[in-house]
Amino acid sequence: MFQSEKAVYHKVLVSFLLNLFYKFLFIRRTYILAKSTEKKALKKGKATFNLIGRAKVTDKTFNLDNSYDSGWTDNQMYLGVDCGNGNIVYAEMRSGFFPDKDNVIRAYDKNEKDDSGKSKSVEIAWEDRFDESLLDSIADSSFLTVGVEKDVKGKTVYKKFLTAYDAVEYLNEHLEDGVVVNVKGNIGYSEYEGNVSVKKDITSIVLSKVEEEEDFKATFSQTILVDTKSVGKKDEEKGTMTLDAYVVDYVGSPKIDGEKVEIKKNVVFPRTFEVEINENPEITAKMLQRFFKPKKKNTLNEITVTGNLVEGAAIVNITEDDIPDDIKELIAMGLYSEEEAEKKCAVGNNNREKRMIIVKPDITYVGQGDERKPTVAFEENKYEDSDLYFYEQALNDAGVDTETDNEESSDETSEDDDLLKMLEGM
Where does 49-187 have alpha helices with state H? Predict the structure, then answer.
């Protein structure tokens, strides 16, 4: 029995629509899977430091005209700043050039903008780095600021340099040991054989108006990422809690086994911080619960924090009761004043521990003009765990064969969210 033309048409139409529907489902499923595996681009936040203290200039502070097999020549400064109570924090300044090659300095134009509205990037030939007609058009952010001399009227003389090479050469001649300086710069991170290093690059060093040691400081401001397992245990002796966080930094073209590997991406580095426990532990508990414990599983909060840098000897508050008896004898003899003895005792064991101690969240400003207002630099659930892109992953993607440790850390962790309970007894 033959089907009518209408029935045949109906069957073909249904078959076509079903095919279309199945294709739609397939495409939708593929899109969802791609979406679920797509990593959100990591953004680098704030990473700065500020030191106020006495410059410690020694015969090892400056290292000029270093030459390497590649032909690269550079100047280096590795400066210690005594920020009080034996807390000597080190920062550096270095750069160089290839004498037999055409070298360029990358900077930003003061007036011109690129398509994204940011200051336009410009290149300056190495030999033109002192050309005032060119420098007048360069944005202030491209310069290193140095002010360690005073004129006949007692005013600080400020110099601007496009390269650390020239700034270090100048500082070698004019920076004096013991002067109180205000040092600012950027914090950078790198990784070698699984160990994460922290570097403090100086962008400004000028004479400070601070006179009293009690006003010296060593502070930082850092954007970090935290997950549900970041908050660790408290250290009774130090009065802090550990915080296993992540920092985002840009990696350009690192040298691996003598060869440059192009990465040119933002990656995450694991970094352990400490959180200072307030005299009232409940305040710290509330802060950790609000900002450092993501409420959504498998997500990370982004928060910018401020804190103190502690290097060298631990900072200890010393009273008369803490002074050993043999040193009290020296005080009784008149060889030391009580204040001098307390300062000596406060220096402690002079270890080279490097600590970044978080005190509180940072406050930033958003908006323009009348709409400008302060806000906590915090974004909840900004990333998912799968968005994290580690340095080792970046090397693998660039074709570097890295040896990996297949041991996986245990997922067994305490699920006690009552941070106040963790702090009780302090």
Answer: 132-135, 164-174
Whether residue 204 contacts residue 115, with contact meaning beta carbons closer than 8 Å, is answered with: no
136-169 CB burial, b ≥16 within 10 A, e <16: eebeeebbbbbbbbeeeeeeeeebebbbbbbbbb
Query: Residue 178: which pLDDT band, with cuts at 50, 70 and 90?
Result: very high
Paired tokens of 241 = 């809690």
361 touches 292 (CB < 8 A) = no
DSSP 305-323: EEEEEEEESPP----GGGS
124 φ, ψ (degrees, to nearest 5)? -120, 130
Question: What DSSP element (H or E) covers 244?
Answer: strand 240-251
- Residue 190: CB atoms within 10 A of its CB come to 14
pLDDT in tens, 86-123: 899 999 999 999 999 999 999 999 888 888 778 899 99
Residue 381: which pLDDT band, with cuts at 50, 70 and 90?
Answer: very high
147 in Cβ contact with 157 (< 8 Å):
yes
Q: How far is CA 69 from the centre of its chain?
A: 31
Q: Comparing C-alpha atoms, which of 188, 134, 187, 199 is closest to residue 160?
A: 134
Give whole-number Cα distances, 320 to 330, 339, 340, 343, in Å: 13, 9, 11, 11
Question: DSSP letter at 289?
Answer: H
